[in-house]
Amino acid sequence: MTTGVAVVLQGVGVGRRAAVGPVARVQPVPAVPGDAPLVVGGEVLTGERAQEVVSRAFADVSAALAGQSRRATGTVKDVLAATAQMADDRALRSQVLTRVGAGEPVVAAVDGVVETFATMFTQAGGYLAERVTDLRSVRDRVVAAAMGLPAPGVPELTEPSVVVATDLAPADTAALDLDKVLAIVTELGGPTGHTAIIAGQLGLPCLVRVHGVTDLADGTRVAVDAASGLVTVDPDDALVAELDRRAAAERALESDTDAGATADGHTVQLLANIGTAADAVRVAGTAAEGVGLFRTEVLFLEATAEPTVAEQSAAYAAALAALPGRKVVVRTLDAGADKPLAFATQPDEENPALGVRGYRLVRTNADLVEHQLEALAQAQRSTGQAPWVMAPMIATADEARDFARRARAHGIERVGVMVEVPSAALRAAEILAEVDFVSLGTNDLAQYTMATDRLRGELADLLDPWQPAVLDLVAATARAGTQLGKPVGVCGESAADPVFALVLVGLGVTSLSMSSGALPAVRFAVRSHTLERCRELAAGALAAASAQAARDVVVDGLDPDVRAALGV
Ligand code: PEP
Ligand code: MG
């Protein structure tokens, strides 16, 4: 028990979980000056002999990462393999060797080349920008290996701990003894970065962008709460008890695996978001009724050339085959802005979020769209499973009609589009008239409605899906769906919020798609309310004057037991 004012650090929570435990900091990279000489066996090496040492260092680091990748599973395995590949990158290594051969000190050469690559990645933005952490982890490991220093990385955990780092590369995460990791907290990184993805896959509470967290001494007891985004130093007994109670309540919710429905039996399909066939395999082991969003661009983030129809078809077929009899909504490539694809994204766009992205690719490279639809049709034939196929970033009914025509020409049976541009929401009826279903992408819908970059964490209050203007557009889309008798899903992050999910159901949304870990709480929230009650809650939210007021009015309207079970 402690007294006095608690020190509380604010960050961005990933998911809703919480944990309490001592801090274990990832040890910083040993500081080696850029001009440090390369000394081996007491001898200073330069020229060809220095090149040999550096070349071996790259090879050793790559082999070590590849070994870790082989021992790992799932996403961890993939990202480690990608980092190992980065260490094995010929361009990276040969540029370093050239500079070392020309007499540049080893540390300065590795650092200089890596920073050039890092600048390129940062300028590319989105996913590539988030790989910069991995690139710098390769640099630190190569420098340590060349200089004969221990590999930088995570501490040996002697007790269950909250792992704290400036940023965490996949390689660091893989080295963690997961039985002893209670939570992950970082100073840097984004909510869609590797740390967040891996923590999500592992079911660990995670906070990113927690300024000042690495100043905490090892052993400091902290409470980490992803739902509130807070790290509380020396939490009091009341907070610890509250988080324990929430964790127990969440575990209890996992036992309900029935199909999604309100208390009075109104069906609400509960689906999972995936990015790879491996994700589909994982989803198969959950109570998700299928997949509401397969982000196909995730398959090809590393590809430098367009994947062949056969390669694409194999990937889609693998995902479909993993989920026999379950609904799978596949989205065609959403390249551009926060998801650049080397073979599809327009170079040098001044404003990529407003440029040739998503379905607009058809204007510059219609073949890409045609090839993907052909691959999906092949996967449909080979598996006997008909995917629902939708296009991203549709702004007009003409675009919806064009996509539907192309998709149907390939034999796709269920054709839809995403509603994530305000114009599409405002004209949802005309758009729905062209297709079989729509899915609301509330991440982008909030971004475009509120003119707020979704990657800027510090503007999160404007990006809030509870913003009245965003709610109005969701309501307009759902209303059109009800009028036309066509399904309207939601696959943005907002669907994972069990309170917001009730509003969505009340507005007429027919399916909710989210990361599979969020499903139990959403299933419980929906099951605990009648459709009529959801409608009342939605009406209250729509009538509110601000995002905060909208959320407050819905939370206040929840049964106290439900509130307690959900920890809201
Ligand atoms: C969205 O925009 O809400 C969405 C689901 O798509 P993405 O996050 O992939 O842009
Ligand atoms: Mg989107």
Number of strands: 18
- Briefly, what CATH class of the largest domain? Alpha Beta
The profile of the biggest β sheet is: 8 strands, mixed
Q: What is the count of distinct domains? A: 3
Model regions low in confidence, pLDDT < 50 over at least 5 residues: none
Relevant CATH superfamily of the largest domain: Phosphoenolpyruvate-binding domains
Helical amount: 40-55%
The backbone outline, from C-alpha atoms, is globular
Q: Nearest-angstrom radius of gyration?
A: 25 Å
Widest beta sheet: strand line-up: 1-10-9-3-6-7-8-2
Q: Helices, strands, pairings?
A:
Blueprint: E1 7-10, E2 12-14, E3 18-25, E4 38-40, E5 43-45, H1 47-71, H2 74-87, H3 90-101, H4 106-124, H5 126-130, H6 132-147, E6 161-165, H7 170-174, E7 181-186, H8 194-202, E8 206-208, E9 221-225, E10 230-233, H9 237-253, E11 269-274, H10 277-284, E12 290-295, H11 309-322, E13 327-331, H12 361-364, H13 366-383, E14 388-391, H14 397-409, E15 414-419, H15 422-426, H16 428-434, E16 437-440, H17 442-449, H18 460-463, H19 468-484, E17 488-490, H20 498-507, E18 511-514, H21 519-527, H22 531-543, H23 547-556, H24 560-566
Parallel strand pairs: 3-6, 6-7, 7-8, 11-12, 11-18, 12-13, 13-14, 14-15, 15-16, 16-17, 17-18
Antiparallel strand pairs: 1-10, 2-8, 3-9, 4-5, 9-10
Helix pairs in contact: 1-2, 1-3, 1-6, 2-6, 2-8, 3-4, 4-6, 10-11, 11-13, 14-16, 16-19, 17-19, 20-21, 20-22, 22-23
Bound molecules: phosphoenolpyruvate and magnesium ion.
